[in-house]
Design brief:
Layout: H1 6-21, E1 26-29, E2 33-34, E3 39-45, E4 52-57, E5 60-66, E6 73-79, E7 87-95, E8 101-108, E9 124-125, E10 140-146, E11 156-158, E12 161-165, E13 170-175, E14 181-186, E15 196-198, E16 201-205, E17 210-215, E18 221-226, E19 236-238, E20 241-245, E21 250-255, E22 261-266, E23 276-278, E24 281-285, E25 290-295, E26 301-306, E27 316-318, E28 321-325, E29 330-335, E30 341-346, E31 356-358, E32 361-366, E33 373-378, E34 384-389, E35 398-400, E36 403-411, E37 414-421, E38 427-433, E39 437-443, E40 446-451, E41 455-460, H2 492-497
Parallel strand pairs: 2-8, 9-35
Antiparallel strand pairs: 1-3, 3-6, 4-5, 4-7, 7-8, 10-41, 11-12, 12-13, 13-14, 15-16, 16-17, 17-18, 19-20, 20-21, 21-22, 23-24, 24-25, 25-26, 27-28, 28-29, 29-30, 31-32, 32-33, 33-34, 35-36, 36-37, 37-38, 39-40, 40-41
Length: 498
């Protein structure tokens, strides 16, 4: 090396060694927000080479990794515990032999993104860990928001925002913590469908015959698809496709990004049922008295099952079985692959709402007296386990953490929302509204519901509010204690290959 170049080369080498020696550890998370039980992949660099690093969720040591020769590790897997309450938590990676490490926040948050919670239609929030049988009786009103007319749809709640439609022709986006309006969009007629929210887009239908797609952050119209009649079917979004029914006697599949029609399948009458999607099939009811199973890709008929009256309810699919109610007073269980009848339960009154399913029990609202109320049926046999009698109800139950929530038009002489034990049917809590209440969403320890007097209500315990609050304090690195029973979860060779 020429003498003139030596100082520059030595200086560069010194700077490189200095920057490497004093690099601070840094970690990245594969996701920054998710429900309890979420899997989180943690990667890090800037650590000492070939040392053990413990990875904590809050103060619990969940994984031990060994860095490679460059002081890196990749994709170490931990999870948010099922008991982690909504709000901000901390992921920490800490060298075992000292207090050298890094921390990143992780937000525990559950979304109720469409009418039936998931594409299967269960109306079960299996992540709920704030409200339960022991404390639901302490629910109180957190806020209410008055729209200009009746609120028939159930709210959807996604990332701290409540989306709900009203007969005043508007779809509203409300702050889930305060009830403050963030934006609203005016359609050409009543909005009586529960919106579906996916990938930053809100989808809903209107009496003006259209399906709309809006930017979920701004309410800006992205596209609309015009059917031949009213859209009262709650859209279901799955695998980049919006499935929805119309009073023009069709079930539609639309490209979720563009609104382009992928297919439309005709039925014999109006479709106000919300489709359920499972194993490549679309399950939906029609006013022509039938339950349909359609190929989700092509719309071709796979099977249909005739009931003896209108099917306006939305099916639920689980474990190879389709559960659906009919105005012929029956709840049906059908083989999801063939449509064969497995069992049916006669309620004695019309079934206007779709069932919910949790822990081997089907919950369904039955509409007219004298048999109106909430029924709990064994999912395998159809046997009645319990029933709670109310007056008229046509709202679909919601289930979360062993509690069933349901709105009624008239109950003990007045409208309201009820919370029942999912196991026994015992009344745990109720709230009287001026008129009837409709289907609810239970998210992050809060119950959201619309009512016939035109208001949206939020009920909570007075703490554990949604919206990014601190659920756990940021741990001091010096106070974290490693679990010496942990085995190394990733070798240095595997880390180097990544």
């Amino acid at each position: 090396m020429p003498k003139a170049n030596r100082p520059k080369a030595v200086c560069a080498a010194f700077l490189l060694l200095t920057s490497t020696a004093f690099a601070a550890p840094t970690i990245t998370l594969s996701k920054k927000i998710g429900p309890p039980t979420s899997s989180i992949l943690v990667s890090g660099n800037g650590f000492e080479p070939n040392v053990g690093v413990d990875i904590y969720f809050d103060t619990k040591d969940q994984a031990l990794v060994v860095t490679n020769n460059e002081g890196e590790f990749h994709n170490a897997k931990i999870h948010a515990p099922s008991s982690a309450h909504p709000g901000e938590h901390w992921v920490t990676a800490l060298e075992r032999n000292n207090d050298k490490g890094d921390q990143k926040p992780f937000i525990v948050n559950t979304n109720w993104s469409q009418f039936r919670f998931d594409a299967y239609g269960t109306r079960l929030n299996s992540y709920e860990n704030v409200l339960g049988v022991n404390n639901v009786g302490d629910l109180g009103l957190k806020w209410s928001y008055a729209t200009g007319d009746v609120v028939f749809p159930s709210p959807a709640v996604v990332d701290g925002v409540v989306y709900v439609g009203s007969n005043d022709h508007n779809l509203y986006a409300l702050d889930a913590r305060t009830g403050k309006r963030l934006w609203s969009f005016t359609a050409g007629d009543s909005v009586q469908t529960t919106p579906a929210v996916a990938n930053g887009v809100v989808y809903f239908g209107s009496w003006d015959d259209n399906v709309y797609a809006l930017n979920s952050h701004t309410g800006t119209l992205l596209w609309k698809f015009t059917t031949g009649d009213h859209v009262l079917s709650d859209p279901t979004v799955a695998n980049g496709v919006v499935y929805v029914g119309s009073w023009d006697h069709h079930v539609y599949a639309l490209n979720a990004r563009t609104g382009a029609e992928l297919w439309g399948h005709p039925t014999g009458w109006s479709v106000s049922s919300s489709p359920a999607i499972a194993n490549g099939l679309v399950y939906v009811g029609s006013w022509d008295d039938n339950v349909y199973a359609l190929d989700a890709r092509t719309g071709d008929l796979v099977w249909s099952y005739p009931t003896n009256n209108i099917v306006i309810t939305s099916p639920v699919v689980a474990n190879g079985v389709v559960y659906v109610g009919s105005e012929d007073y029956n709840v049906y269980a059908l083989n999801a692959r063939t449509g064969d009848l497995l069992w049916r339960y006669y309620t004695g009154d019309p079934v206007f709402s779709g069932p919910a399913l949790a822990n081997g029990i089907v919950y369904v609202s039955v509409g007219d007296s004298p048999n109106s109320g909430i029924y709990a049926l064994d999912a395998h046999t159809g046997a009645l386990l319990w029933r709670y009698l109310t007056f008229y109800t046509d709202s679909a139950p919601a289930v979360a953490n062993d509690v069933v929530y349901v709105g009624v038009l008239i109950g003990v002489g007045e409208g309201g929302v009820y919370a029942l034990s999912a196991r026994t049917g015992d009344l745990l809590w109720s709230y009287a509204t001026t008129y009837g209440a409709d289907s609810s969403a239970v998210v992050n320890g809060v119950v959201y519901i619309g009512s016939d007097e035109g208001s949206v209500y939020a009920f909570g315990l007075g703490h554990d509010e949604p919206g990014g609050e601190i659920a756990s304090k940021r741990p001091d690195l010096k106070t974290l204690r490693p679990d010496f029973n942990l085995k190394v979860s990733m070798s240095r060779e595997a880390a180097s290959r990544n």
